[in-house]
Write a structure and sequence with these properties.
The chain starts with a strand and ends in a 5-residue tail after the last strand. The chain is mostly beta strands and about 180 residues long. The protein has three helices and nine strands; from the N terminus they run βββββββαβααβ. The strands form two sheets. It has a five-stranded antiparallel beta sheet with strand order 8-1-2-5-9. A four-stranded antiparallel beta sheet has the order 4-3-6-7. The protein has one domain (about 1-170): Immunoglobulin-like (Sandwich), CATH 2.60.40.150. Helices cover about 10% and strands about 35% of the residues. Bound molecules: calcium ion. Belongs to the synaptotagmin family. This is Synaptotagmin-9. Keywords: Repeat.
C-alpha cells in the first residue's frame, strides 16, 4: 500500500510507501527481508531511484516512508513510477519479490491511482496494489515504458523532471 501526492505549484511528487502484506518468502527462514525501490521513469528511461529501509525477516513490513521527486507540471504526463519490492540478502544478489507501476501509461489501477492523484492535488491518496512478479531488469525490458506517450519518440518531449535534485528527500520514520 502506498500513497501518492502531487503539489503542482512546487512541482513535487511524493510517494509514501506505507506497508505490504503477504509477500512471497524468498529465504529459507520462510520470510524475506523486504525493502522497496522506487524508480522515476520517463519514456522507458530511469531518471532517479530511491529506496526505503530494509525490514528484516518479515512478510508484512510496515514502512511509512516518504520519497519525494521533483517533477514540474509540464513533465508530469511523461512520468511513471516503477515500484519494486526487493528481498535483501546479505550474501548474493538481492531478488525482486514483485513490482507494480503507476503513471499515465500504467494499466488499470496504476493509471487510476495516478489520475486520482492529479485530480486531487495536495491530497495524499492511498491504495493497495497487487504485485506482479517481474524480471530484475524490467525497466529496460518493458515495451510499454519504451513506447512513450502516443508511441512516438518526440525529441521536444525532453525529460527535465528532477534535474536539479535539490528537493528530493527520503524521510525515514515519516509519520502520518
Ligand atoms: Ca533475504
Amino acid at each position: 500500500m502506498f500513497s501518492l501526492c502531487y503539489l503542482p505549484t512546487a512541482g513535487r511528487l511524493t510517494i509514501t510507501i506505507i506497508k505490504a502484506r503477504n509477500l512471497k518468502a524468498m529465504d529459507i527462514t520462510g520470510a524475506s527481508d523486504p525493502y522497496v525501490k522506487v524508480s522515476l521513469m520517463c519514456e522507458g528511461r530511469r531518471l532517479k531511484k530511491r529506496k526505503t529501509s530494509t525490514k528484516r525477516n518479515t512478510l508484512n513490513p510496515v514502512y511509512n516512508e516518504a520519497i519525494v521527486f521533483d517533477v514540474p507540471p509540464e513533465n508530469i504526463d511523461q512520468i511513471s513510477l516503477l515500484i519494486a519490492v526487493m528481498d535483501y540478502d546479505r550474501v548474493g544478489h538481492n531478488e525482486v519479490i514483485g513490482v507494480c507501476r503507476v503513471g499515465n501509461e500504467a494499466e488499470s489501477l496504476g493509471r487510476d491511482h495516478w489520475n486520482e492523484m492529479l485530480t486531487y492535488p495536495r491530497k495524499p491518496i492511498a491504495h493497495w496494489h497487487p504485485l506482479i512478479e517481474g524480471p530484475p531488469q524490467l525497466p529496460d525490458l518493458d515495451p510499454i515504458a519504451r513506447l512513450g506517450r502516443g508511441g512516438t519518440r518526440d525529441s521536444h518531449h525532453e525529460c527535465t523532471a528532477n534535474r536539479s535534485g535539490s528537493h528530493e528527500r527520503l524521510y525515514s520514520q515519516y509519520t502520518k
